[in-house]
């Protein structure tokens, strides 16, 4: 397509011409009229702006939809190359035409007002469009010029234009001006015309013919009007009702054919029952048609009907498909998921009366913008995706080893949840199950820890080899934070009240005090001294582990409570170096809550890193990060696997607190249980993660009480912001119905839960029968939340059945015991012979000798 034969310059009188002019190409609007004209411009119209004032905001015109802008040479200089040349036309005085070439690299055209120039049929400057305006045009002369002196385009103020079929001495006919360059190479003088659909992406509807007369009528009425070779003027839809709204008319490059873009109404374009003369639409255009017709008459009960009427369902499907598209890997899978997403996105558009064409228009408008936003995700999404073990999409793309970045766990549905189906735990009666089935109830989902260890190896290795630089690079990659230093050293800034409100500070203080009180009480203050035989004194005393690392998760939630639970016992135990590791926020900062706790517990430094790289840095040390002797703390699979990996590397010489896994709770309830409390306890754990384990053991529950508990689970869960996560966890959870308290306790001891909550008539008495559990919550008023945050007990507890052999984190976890003995000479006389005899028996003569030489000395 070439430059339109003329460019209408809109003046205040021109608004009535806009519907016709907008069909034919861009219009030129002086900046002083932009505000008045834009609202009256047909939606499909394209426009240029002529910058009339020296202080015109050119960038903003372009950003807001102007295709091109006409500027003076001084305006051009001020722009200093900010605007692509395709978007700029330089306005020159007629005596300046000779300098146009100097600007050719910065502009796409020149605009000259000249009574001389417009008569010059030979004004051609290579690679530049030429727009000519005669200050006092003569319409008939102009028409002649347009016919003969293309490629120049003539700028014609609308006061000289008329929506008429014929040009007069005062006004140039719009359609005559437009058709002036057209020629026909057919004997009948007609012009082949391609009709295309404006609102479909597969556009051609068919081929027809036009005459000057039909085009003129089409332009003046803004309807599809053609020239039938048999029946003369053909006003499309005149008899069938299948009229066409005309959107644009264009000449082809050599001015012998036309294209009409239309919105086709009624039964369609072709006389056959098909969408186009070339067959039916396919793909996205077909889908759009289908959805439109379904919107009008979807069968009751059909899925499409459901998505049109259930906004929440449609919303959740869009979110779900977007996530699936991000997670798809192969090209087939990506196409498959993109198709799903487009289906639901288009359903949303159609249900709101938005067509594909409208979407394309929005795209075109966006493409005209020249100032671009940075393109970062909104914090809401960034927080969901960045650096949490679940937001695989963001982390994955820059993962060092391709296959490795997909977490094995499902991604929590942290999108707005709209699934209204009942949230329900399955239930089983223990006595009805055989031994195998009963055993299965004790199992947690298998975590493929070996596979995860393989995945974290390259990350840990990189920190080990590249030190701080590698660590920074991975923090940038996984947590999107570009740090100048990996650590934050004290004194830490005190969070302002805006950052950390007084009531939150107070709550942290209460938790800190209680946890400290309980953990101080656990500390051994005196050595244990025992005389095992006269003169043989054994003792055991405690020493802090000098350097500890505490990991505070920061992926999906900020966990100052974990900072307390790990920082306080480290402080109480007297550890000299406490490194607190936590993933930084994308701006590189640490949450004020965690910062405040770090101050309270007096950490040596905050390591601003998360995941496997943080564990690697603490295990091996870097220039900035002190190497530690033991690493504590929960975390996602990357953290846990890295802890397991470094613990087994003798070079690292580092211990870990315990094997960690998804959080768990087992609630035992009898007839006295309050269903509201029971449900709330189950959900408080279910909201942690989709892999949380939630078990209710019901002792002789009546149907009514069971029903009430189930109802409460459903009602309370649906009111939670993390309902999607809770729903997933509840799906995998179970209610175990038993006949007696004994049966319940036996089951619980076998299960060895991380948290055990007793909703029992005689809860306190039952505690003595508990053999395996991380922490017990006794009676109706002891929710697990108290232990999670502030009662004083620690919330870092053994999961996955490890409560059979592990304790939760406590003060002693941060200390080690040293034993000593003092043997007096009398003591050695008494003890020595037994030692010698045992050493001889083991064949270890040197051991025996060490005693013999002393006994010999004593016997002198
Ligand atoms: N048992 C407990 O006492 C307890 C307490 C609090 C939290 N938790 C658990 O801790 C976990 C916290 O997990 P989180 O994800 O929120 O935070 P997190 O801090 O454990 O993990 C975030 C880090 O994981 C790394 N990571 C994420 N995706 C990665 C990928 N694809 N490749 C490499 N590294 C990646 C990033 O470095 C990121 O910094 C949850 O499962 C929660 O239930 C347990
Ligand atoms: N319940 C978690 C341990 O399983 C700890 C926690 C932190 N915040 C809330 N709860
Ligand atoms: Zn919790």
Automatic annotation (TrEMBL):
Short name of one Pfam family: PRA-CH
Residue stretches of biased makeup (Basic and acidic residues): 373-383
InterPro entries the UniProt entry points to: Ald_DH/histidinol_DH (IPR016161), HisE (IPR008179), Histidine_synth_trifunct (IPR016298), Histidinol_DH_CS (IPR001692), Hstdl_DH (IPR012131), PRib-ATP_PPHydrolase-like (IPR021130), PRib_AMP_CycHydrolase_dom (IPR002496), PRib_AMP_CycHydrolase_sf (IPR038019)
Reactions catalysed according to its record: 1-(5-phospho-beta-D-ribosyl)-ATP + H2O = 1-(5-phospho-beta-D-ribosyl)-5'-AMP + diphosphate + H(+); 1-(5-phospho-beta-D-ribosyl)-5'-AMP + H2O = 1-(5-phospho-beta-D-ribosyl)-5-[(5-phospho-beta-D-ribosylamino)methylideneamino]imidazole-4-carboxamide; L-histidinol + 2 NAD(+) + H2O = L-histidine + 2 NADH + 3 H(+)
Enzyme Commission code(s) on record: 3.5.4.19, 3.6.1.31, 1.1.1.23
Pathway given in the UniProt record: Amino-acid biosynthesis; L-histidine biosynthesis; L-histidine from 5-phospho-alpha-D-ribose 1-diphosphate: step 2/9; Amino-acid biosynthesis; L-histidine biosynthesis; L-histidine from 5-phospho-alpha-D-ribose 1-diphosphate: step 9/9; Amino-acid biosynthesis; L-histidine biosynthesis; L-histidine from 5-phospho-alpha-D-ribose 1-diphosphate: step 3/9
NCBIfam families per UniProt: hisD, histidine_hisI
Compositional bias (Polar residues): 385-398
UniProt name for this protein: Histidine biosynthesis trifunctional protein
PROSITE patterns according to UniProt: HISOL_DEHYDROGENASE
HAMAP family (UniProt xref): HisD
GO biological process entries: L-histidine biosynthetic process
Family: In the C-terminal section; belongs to the histidinol dehydrogenase family.
Obligatory cofactor(s): Zn(2+)
MF GO annotations: ATP binding; histidinol dehydrogenase activity; metal ion binding; NAD binding; phosphoribosyl-AMP cyclohydrolase activity; phosphoribosyl-ATP diphosphatase activity
Residue ranges occupied by any Phosphoribosyl-AMP cyclohydrolase domain in the UniProt entry: 207-278
Keywords: Amino-acid biosynthesis, ATP-binding, Histidine biosynthesis, Hydrolase, Metal-binding, Multifunctional enzyme, NAD, Nucleotide-binding, Oxidoreductase, Zinc
């Amino acid at each position: 397509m070439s430059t339109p034969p003329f460019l209408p310059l809109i003046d205040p009188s021109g608004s009535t011409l806009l519907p016709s002019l907008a069909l034919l190409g861009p219009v030129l609007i002086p900046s002083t009229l932009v505000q008045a004209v834009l609202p009256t411009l047909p939606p499909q119209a394209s426009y240029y702006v002529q910058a009339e004032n020296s202080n015109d905001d050119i960038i903003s015109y372009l950003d807001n939809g102007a295709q091109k802008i006409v500027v003076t040479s001084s305006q051009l200089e001020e722009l200093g190359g900010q605007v692509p040349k395709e978007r700029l036309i330089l306005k020159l005085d007629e005596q300046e035409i000779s300098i146009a070439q100097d600007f050719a690299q910065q502009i796409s055209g020149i605009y000259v007002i000249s009574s001389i120039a417009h008569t010059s049929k030979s004004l051609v400057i290579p690679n530049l469009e030429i727009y000519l305006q005669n200050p006092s045009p003569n319409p008939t002369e102009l028409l002649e010029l347009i016919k003969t002196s293309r490629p120049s385009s003539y700028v014609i103020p609308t006061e000289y234009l008329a929506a008429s079929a014929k040009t007069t001495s005062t006004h140039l006919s719009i359609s005559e001006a437009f058709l002036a360059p057209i020629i026909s190479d057919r004997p009948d003088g007609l012009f082949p015309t391609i009709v295309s659909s404006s609102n479909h992406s597969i556009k051609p509807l068919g081929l027809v013919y036009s005459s000057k007369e039909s085009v003129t009528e089409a332009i003046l009425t803004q309807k599809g009007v053609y020239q039938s070779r048999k029946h003369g003027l053909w006003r499309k839809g005149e008899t069938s009702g299948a009229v066409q709204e005309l959107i644009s008319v264009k000449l082809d490059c050599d001015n012998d054919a036309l294209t009409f873009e239309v919105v086709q109404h009624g039964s369609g374009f072709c006389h056959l029952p098909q969408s186009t003369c070339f067959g039916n639409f396919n793909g996205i255009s077909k889908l759009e048609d289908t959805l439109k017709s379904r919107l009008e008459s979807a069968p009751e009960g059909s899925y499409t009907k459901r998505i049109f009427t259930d906004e929440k369902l449609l919303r959740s499907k869009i979110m779900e498909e977007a996530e699936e598209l991000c997670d798809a890997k192969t090209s087939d899978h990506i196409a498959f998921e993109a198709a799903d997403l487009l289906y639901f996105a288009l359903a949303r558009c159609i249900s709101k009366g938005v067509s594909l064409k409208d979407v394309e228009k929005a795209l075109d408008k966006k493409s005209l913008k020249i100032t671009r936003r940075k393109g970062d995700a909104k914090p809401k999404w960034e927080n969901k995706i960045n650096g949490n073990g679940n937001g695989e999409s963001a982390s994955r793309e820059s993962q060092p080893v391709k296959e490795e970045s997909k977490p094995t766990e499902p991604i929590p549905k942290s999108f707005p949840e709209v699934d209204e189906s009942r949230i329900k735990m399955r239930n089983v009666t223990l006595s009805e199950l055989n031994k195998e089935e009963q055993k299965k109830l004790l199992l947690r989902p298998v975590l493929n820890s070996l596979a995860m260890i393989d995945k974290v190896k390259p990350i840990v290795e990189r920190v080990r080899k590249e030190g701080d630089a590698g660590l920074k690079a991975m923090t940038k990659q996984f947590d999107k934070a570009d740090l100048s230093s990996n650590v934050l050293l004290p004194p830490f800034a005190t969070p302002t009240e805006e950052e950390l409100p007084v009531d939150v500070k107070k709550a942290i203080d209460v938790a800190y005090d209680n946890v400290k009180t309980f953990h101080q009480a656990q500390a051994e203050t005196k050595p244990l001294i025992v005389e095992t035989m006269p003169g043989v004194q054994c003792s055991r005393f405690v020493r802090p582990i000098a350097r500890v690392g505490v990991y505070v998760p920061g992926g999906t939630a900020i966990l100052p409570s974990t900072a307390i639970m790990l920082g306080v016992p480290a402080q109480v135990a007297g550890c000299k170096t406490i490194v607190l590791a936590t993933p930084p926020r994308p701006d590189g900062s640490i949450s004020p809550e965690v910062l405040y706790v770090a101050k309270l517990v007096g950490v040596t430094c905050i390591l601003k890193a998360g995941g496997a790289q943080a564990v690697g840095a603490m295990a091996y040390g870097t220039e900035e990060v002190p190497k530690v002797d033991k690493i504590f703390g929960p975390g996602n699979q990357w953290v846990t696997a890295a802890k397991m990996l470094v613990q087994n590397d003798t070079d690292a010489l580092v211990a870990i607190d315990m094997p960690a896994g998804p959080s768990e709770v087992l609630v035992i309830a009898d007839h006295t249980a309050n269903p509201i409390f029971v449900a709330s306890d189950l959900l408080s754990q279910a909201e942690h993660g989709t892999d949380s384990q939630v078990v209710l053991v019901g002792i002789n529950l009546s149907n009514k009480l069971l029903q009430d508990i189930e109802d409460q689970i459903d009602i309370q869960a649906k009111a939670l912001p993390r309902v999607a996560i809770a729903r997933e966890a509840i799906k995998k959870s179970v209610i175990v119905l038993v006949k007696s308290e004994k049966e319940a306790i036996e089951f619980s001891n076998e299960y060895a839960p991380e948290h055990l909550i007793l909703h029992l008539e005689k809860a306190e008495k039952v505690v003595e029968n508990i053999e395996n559990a991380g922490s017990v919550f006794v009676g109706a008023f002891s929710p697990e939340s108290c232990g999670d945050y502030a009662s004083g007990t620690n919330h870092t507890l053994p999961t996955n059945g490890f409560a059979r052999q592990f304790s939760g984190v406590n003060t002693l976890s941060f200390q080690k015991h040293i034993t000593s003995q003092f043997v007096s000479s009398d003591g050695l006389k008494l003890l020595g012979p037994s030692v010698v005899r045992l050493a001889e028996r083991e064949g270890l003569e040197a051991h025996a000798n060490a005693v013999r030489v002393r006994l010999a000395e004593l016997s002198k």
